[in-house]
Write a structure and sequence with these properties.
The complex is a heterodimer. By secondary structure, chain A is of the alpha/beta class. Chain A folds into two domains: 238 residues, Rossmann fold (3-Layer(aba) Sandwich), CATH 3.40.50; 34 residues, no CATH class. Chain A is built from ten helices and ten strands. In chain A, the strands form three sheets. Chain A has a six-stranded mixed β-sheet with strand order 5-4-3-6-7-10, sandwiched between helices. Chain A has a two-stranded antiparallel sheet with strand order 1-2. Chain A has a two-stranded antiparallel ribbon with strand order 8-9. In chain A, helix 4 packs antiparallel against helix 5 and helix 6 packs parallel to helix 7. The longest helix of chain A is centred in the last third of the chain and has 25 residues. By secondary structure, chain B is of the alpha/beta class. Chain B is 28% helix and 28% strand. A seven-stranded mixed β-sheet of chain B has the order 17-16-18-19-24-23-22. A five-stranded parallel β-sheet of chain B has the order 5-4-6-7-33, sandwiched between helices. In chain B, strand 23 and strand 24 form a beta hairpin. In chain B, helix 3 packs antiparallel against helix 4, helix 3 packs parallel to helix 15 and helix 5 packs parallel to helix 7. The longest helix of chain B is centred in the N-terminal third of the chain and has 38 residues. The chains are: A alpha/beta, B alpha/beta. At the A-B interface, strand 8, strand 9 and helix 9 of A face strand 2, helix 2 and helix 16 of B.
Chain lengths: 297, 708
């Protein structure tokens, strides 16, 4: 298996190390004192019996019950119910936006994804990674080993902002890829047609996936603080540049943005999808805290 | 359209500022990479067209705001209607043509400025305006026979108006102006008061004294617009002889006569060794020198004995002051043979100062009483209450000194007075009030000038009555306006008769209670003067006061003069003298100080023959040729006119404010003011309102654009 040093240049390796360190710092710093240690709770304790069905591993048959009751029962343990989480990171052009006082949304998303992956693997959960723009770009199946984490991080480091956002078809193709039910953590700005996005999310939900939608905003996108005449140039080449007096449209923009977010939130709620709206000037620990709050509900 | 501050129109160029800013903003477009384009497009989708219109509107408003502000500051006035004679007005110019208007250089005196600048003002009036010019020193006279719309004629009349030297008769002039304005056609009435606003004329009004005529004008419906045209000169240096008073109006040959002269320095320069000369009948007799501090005054007395009977002119003249008209002052003295006075009293004279006659005799012939070598004018004959035909022979004045009643023929005394004699009556404790009222007054048909209403006494414990203060105008009383002649108010009156009013009776002095003390009435060709208290010390202490001697002498002198002619006149007045029928039959001619001869006319009024003298314009000694007789008249400037001190600017403005008047000081400022008035308000007010609306609209539009 190729090591990171064979595919990454020095800067990327440095970024990878930084990302790993960042994720560990965030997660461990965050978990210490806030919750019980994520290292506790990994258990091989018996959970329940269930009747044997064809295809079950016969090694898990409880022979003692078979001896007493002459029926085949399968023993199930907690460790077998480990979470399979897929972190889906939007790497479209719009995620390359960086406001005047913040960070690029993609950078924020990468760090957030890394932190979540670290947190999940630390809990012996299996974590996969999907990056996309107008189509799926990287799909890494779930794994729970530490080496898998390195692979995830390498992938995140190499992820660049791509072309246009086309979220709905991406989610639909993702639904075909993810056969096993699990947790999907979708990190995106959701700058797409809300209805189609919600429709695609509905497909995933019907497959039994649990979904957490983390919507990222730059502070400038939230406040629209521009004063001078400006020419707004689209990062995704999907729109013509707009030349306007920002002051003249600010209130209207804020209203439209609020409506957009509200519509998305309402749609996600209908699909029983948790929605986190984060600004990129918020600490990642805040994002993790909100994520855990959602998980504990 | 014209502008009062046209130069401020240049501020309109500030409209370029928002335009430049707009264009600069267009050039300084900042490229802004943006992700949420779909949100931005959604925000723009509804408002793009409206937004463009609103932004153009906002730019337009921002261009208009500095333009309107500049227009407001430039104070535009709509003048288009003037071409059609719109805004024509009735303008009354009240021209102060008093002596003080000639202060300063001849070319730049207020009088000269008034002529030049008023001509420009008149020529700038709209077509159809009517003008009249009223003289401040002679309010009953106007420069034009009737108001005229021929403004060039009015300007010519103004230019040809000669300089005059009379005082400003402010109250009379304003009253006449108010009366004229009431009669003028309603509409745009204007009163322009052109004056040097000297402190002397306007000081009282500036201090808060009322100007009733102006107050009535302000209450008049469609009252006039009042404007003060300020011609105040800078403070001018001026010396003036403000008084030259003779110690007696009538003197005997060889009797010393004093001329008391008062010189005032109205300037800030101190004078040393200023020569002042004393002239008799135009000949300089003596010259003295005096020193005057800044704003100071000095008094000198010259004495002279005349050796010829007749009218003589006395003059005092200073030299060295360039403003010459008020440098001399003149007086007329009549020198005559001794004046025979018959003093009637009830008791035989005892020689001691007890009876009223003792005091009167002493006062009328003090030198004779003192055994002095000096001559007295009056020869007093004292007589017990007895009057015969022979007693009146050669007498000119009869005095009744506390006579109970005339025991002899009253008709003899009546005949004496009717034929030109003088009668002076002093009442007292012995006088029979009933006889005086019934026989002596006789319902106005007798000699006593007033009805007697009763005896009055000062109540116990109360202050005695005193002579009321006030400016005295009777020729016999003028001397006592100066307190150096003795304070009349020092005399205390314990008892007096209360005299009632009567037709033809004139009050010379009153008590502070208001009751007349000395009254006079013409009876036939003679005159009677009655004093309502005693001549001795029985009812008052007047006989012990310094003024008693000159007072009695002046009363007797006045009675001895058969003519009612005043011989000391003031520049600016138009005197009328009542003549006897013999005098009226003669020809009369006046020789003015300049040598010009003026034939005088005679008018009849209520069976009286009045000699009419045209308005006196120049100071000096005039000769009045009355048939073959030569009389002298002295004409002097009003001494108040010599003070050229103007009102302070703040006082003038306060005065104007109190009477809702505006102050201008040049034809340009008048025209600006007049334009504004004629066409209602200037345009800056509505423009300012529009400007405020635009500012309001700008804020609203900006908020609307910002809020989306």
């Amino acid at each position: 298996m190729a090591s990171p040093t064979s595919i990454l240049n020095a800067e990327e390796i440095s970024s990878l190390a930084n990302l790993q360190l960042f994720a560990r710092t965030v997660v461990e710093g965050f978990t210490t004192g806030n919750h019980a240690s994520p290292h506790k709770g990994f258990s091989v304790e018996f959970r329940q019996h269930r009747p044997y069905v064809q295809g079950d591993d016969i090694r898990r048959l409880d022979w003692k019950i078979f001896g007493r009751a002459d029926r085949f029962y399968i023993r199930e343990y907690d460790e077998e119910t480990n979470l399979r989480a897929t972190v889906v990171v939007d790497a479209s052009g719009s995620m390359a936006f960086q406001g005047r006082g913040g960070v690029r949304k993609l950078d924020y998303a990468r760090k957030l994804a890394a932190s979540l992956a670290y947190l999940l693997i630390s809990q012996q959960d299996a974590v996969g990674l999907v990056t996309f723009d107008s189509k799926l770009r990287q799909v890494i199946p779930c794994g729970s080993r530490v080496t898998h984490l390195n692979h995830l991080l390498e992938t995140l480091v190499q992820t660049k902002a791509g072309s246009e956002t086309d979220l709905a078809p991406v989610l639909e193709s993702l639904a075909q890829r993810l056969r096993r039910r699990g947790l999907i953590i979708l990190i995106s700005d959701f700058f797409d047609e809300a209805d189609s996005v919600l429709r695609a999310i509905g497909v995933l939900r019907r497959q039994g996936h649990e979904i957490i939608a983390i919507q990222l905003w730059d502070r400038d996108e939230l406040d629209f603080p521009f004063g001078e005449m400006s020419r707004f140039e689209c990062l995704e080449q999907s729109h013509e540049p707009l030349q306007l007096d920002p002051k003249a449209v600010r209130m209207r923009y804020l209203q439209v943005r609020g409506e957009f977010e509200q519509k998305l939130r309402e749609g996600l709620r209908r699909h029983q999808v948790d929605h986190l709206s984060l600004a990129t000037d918020q600490p990642h620990s805040t994002a993790l805290r909100q994520y855990l709050a959602l998980r504990l509900r | 359209m014209s502008f009062l501050n046209a130069i401020l129109l240049s501020g309109g160029a500030a409209l370029l500022l928002p335009l430049i800013l707009y264009l600069l903003n267009l050039r300084r477009i900042t490229p802004q990479p943006w992700a949420a384009m779909h949100l931005l497009q959604a925000a723009l989708a509804k408002r793009r067209r409206n937004l463009r219109i609103e932004q153009w509107l906002l730019l337009l408003i921002r261009l208009l705001i500095p333009l309107l502000l500049a227009l407001c500051l430039a104070r535009p006035v709509m003048t288009a209607m003037r071409v059609f004679g719109g805004g024509k007005s009735s303008l009354l110019v009240l021209l102060d043509d008093s002596y003080s208007m000639q202060a300063g250089d001849a070319a730049s005196s207020p009088s000269q400025r008034a002529k030049q600048e008023l001509s420009r003002i008149l020529q700038s009036l709209p077509k159809g305006s009517e003008v009249q010019v009223m003289r401040g020193s002679a309010p009953d006279q106007t420069l034009l026979n009737a108001p005229t719309a021929a403004l060039d004629i009015a300007a010519q009349a103004l230019q040809s108006h000669p300089s005059t030297h009379g005082p400003l008769r402010l109250q009379d002039a304003l009253s006449a102006a108010a009366s004229w304005i009431e009669k003028s056609p309603p509409g745009n009435r204007e009163l322009l008061v052109v004056s040097d606003f000297s402190k002397r004329d306007w000081g009282n009004a500036a201090q808060g004294a009322g100007l009733p005529a102006l107050q009535s004008l302000s209450k008049m419906p469609q009252g006039p617009q009042l404007t003060f045209y300020d011609l105040r000169p800078p403070q001018a240096e001026n010396l003036a002889v403000v008084a030259a008073e003779t110690s007696a109006q009538i003197a005997a040959v060889g009797q010393p006569i004093g001329l008391r002269v008062r010189v005032v320095n109205h300037g800030q320069r101190a004078w040393q060794d200023l020569p002042i000369s004393f002239e008799v009948d135009g000949k300089r007799l003596r010259t003295s020198r005096l020193s005057l501090a800044a704003q100071g005054e000095a008094v000198l007395t010259f004495t002279h004995q005349f050796d010829a009977i007749g009218k003589h002119a006395l003059s005092a003249r200073i030299e060295g002051d360039s403003f010459a008209l008020d440098n001399a002052r003149h007086g007329i003295v009549e020198v005559r043979k001794p004046l025979e006075v018959l003093l009637l009293e009830d008791e035989k004279p005892r020689g001691s100062l007890e009876a009223a006659g003792d005091f009167l005799s002493l006062a009328l012939s003090p030198h004779q009483s003192a055994g002095s070598d000096l001559k007295d004018l009056m020869q007093v004959t004292r007589n017990e209450n007895r009057l015969r035909q022979d007693d009146l022979k050669g007498r000119e004045v009869v005095i009744l000194a506390d006579v109970e009643r005339l025991r002899s023929n009253l008709s003899l005394l009546e005949k004496f007075v009717t034929e030109g004699g003088g009668l002076l009556v002093f009442v007292g404790p012995k006088a029979d009030l009933t006889w005086y009222q019934r026989d002596f007054y006789n319902r106005g048909k007798g000699l006593f000038p007033s009805p007697v209403l009763g005896l009055r006494r000062a109540a116990n414990g109360l202050q005695p009555a005193r002579i009321a203060k006030g400016l005295l105008s009777h020729p016999a009383m003028l001397y006592f306006n100066d307190t150096r002649a003795g304070r009349l108010q020092d005399a205390e009156f314990q008892s007096w008769w209360e005299l009632g009013p009567a037709e033809g009776t004139r009050t010379l002095l009153s008590l502070d209670s208001g009751t007349p003390l000395i009254v006079e009435r013409q009876v036939g060709r003679g005159r009677v003067i009655a004093v309502a208290s005693s001549a001795g010390t029985a009812w008052n202490n007047a006989a012990l006061q310094p003024f008693f001697v000159p007072l009695t002498q002046r009363l007797v002198s006045h009675l001895s003069s058969s003519s009612m002619v005043r011989d000391n006149l003031t520049v600016g007045e138009s005197p009328r003298f009542e003549l006897t029928s013999e005098e009226a039959a003669l020809t009369h001619q006046l020789v003015l100080p300049s040598g010009q001869r003026v034939d005088l006319g005679i008018e009849s009024e209520n069976q009286r023959r009045l000699l009419v003298i045209p308005t006196l314009q120049e100071p000096g000694v005039m000769q009045w040729n009355c048939g073959n007789e030569l009389r002298l008249l002295a004409c002097n400037l009003d001494p108040q006119e010599a003070d050229f001190t103007p009102l302070a600017t703040a006082d003038l403005e306060a005065l104007a404010k109190r009477h809702s008047a505006r102050v201008v000081n040049s034809p340009e400022s008048w025209q600006q003011l007049d334009r504004g008035r004629r066409h209602g308000s200037e345009l800056w007010k509505p423009l300012l309102a529009i400007l405020l609306l635009l500012l309001f609209a700008e804020v609203l539009l900006q908020q609307r654009i910002t809020r989306g």
